[in-house]
């Protein structure tokens, strides 16, 4: 038998839900003398990546004058992974009011305290990027062969051919002029040969007519 969930959840149902700790949570024992132990000491909040073993962190290689990740502290290695630690100054100024320090109560469990977090640190994994020789990796550009006689024939709205040098008719090169002259000469010689053939054909017709008229006489 399949049990379906309720279509609507009332306030009374939600109030009965109990908090379930996340997977892998291990309860810790807190002493009731936190206030005494924290007296004249600072509380630091350290953020670390998943899987980072805080027990192996013996000291914090922090730079208090670093202005960027590149000018920060010297990286350190843990389990063949490189990390750096940086202080979050902006968080220090704005975030203390967002956090509440919990400590062990006299009757057990955790209770909120008036203690404030003084410093915030962030442990980041870093990756070493090798230096790249861009001159050796860059492929030289090969220019496309320029075609003579191209003109710009389409213009943006509000412009015409007078606004662009590319739209003007290109000047003929010496090779173009020579080809044009050769074409003109060929055309003229073709017309002349056709004219000569036409004239010779007319003469032959006249001769045939004369011969025919003589025979009839």
UniProtKB/TrEMBL annotation:
One of its GO terms (biological process) is transcription by RNA polymerase I. Residues 206-217 have a biased composition (Basic residues). PANTHER family: ACR243WP, DNA-DIRECTED RNA POLYMERASE I SUBUNIT RPA34.5-DOMAIN-CONTAINING PROTEIN. Residues 196-205 have a biased composition (Basic and acidic residues). The lineage of its organism: Eukaryota, Fungi, Dikarya, Ascomycota, Saccharomycotina. It comes from Diutina rugosa (Yeast). Residues 1-26, 156-217 are annotated as: Disordered. Pfam families: RNA_polI_A34 (PF08208). This is DNA-directed RNA polymerase I subunit RPA34. Residues 10-19 have a biased composition (Acidic residues).
């Amino acid at each position: 038998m399949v049990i379906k969930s309720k279509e609507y959840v009332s306030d009374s149902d939600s109030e009965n839900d109990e908090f379930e700790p996340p997977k892998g949570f291990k309860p810790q024992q807190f002493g009731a003398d936190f206030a005494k132990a924290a007296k004249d000491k600072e509380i630091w909040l350290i953020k670390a990546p998943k899987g980072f073993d805080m027990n192996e962190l013996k000291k914090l290689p922090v730079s208090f004058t670093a202005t960027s990740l590149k000018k920060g502290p010297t990286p350190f290695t843990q389990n063949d992974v490189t990390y750096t630690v940086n202080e979050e100054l902006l968080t220090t100024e704005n975030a203390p009011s967002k956090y509440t320090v919990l400590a062990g109560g006299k009757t057990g469990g955790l209770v909120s305290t008036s203690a404030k977090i003084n410093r915030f640190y962030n442990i980041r994994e870093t990756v070493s990027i090798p230096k790249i020789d861009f001159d050796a990796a860059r492929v030289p550009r090969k220019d496309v062969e320029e075609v003579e006689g191209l003109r710009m024939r389409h213009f943006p709205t509000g412009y015409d051919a007078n606004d662009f040098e590319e739209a003007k008719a290109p000047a003929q090169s010496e090779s173009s002029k020579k080809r044009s002259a050769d074409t003109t000469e060929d055309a003229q010689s073709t017309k002349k040969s056709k004219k000569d053939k036409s004239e010779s054909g007319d003469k032959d017709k006249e001769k045939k007519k004369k011969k025919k008229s003589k025979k009839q006489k």
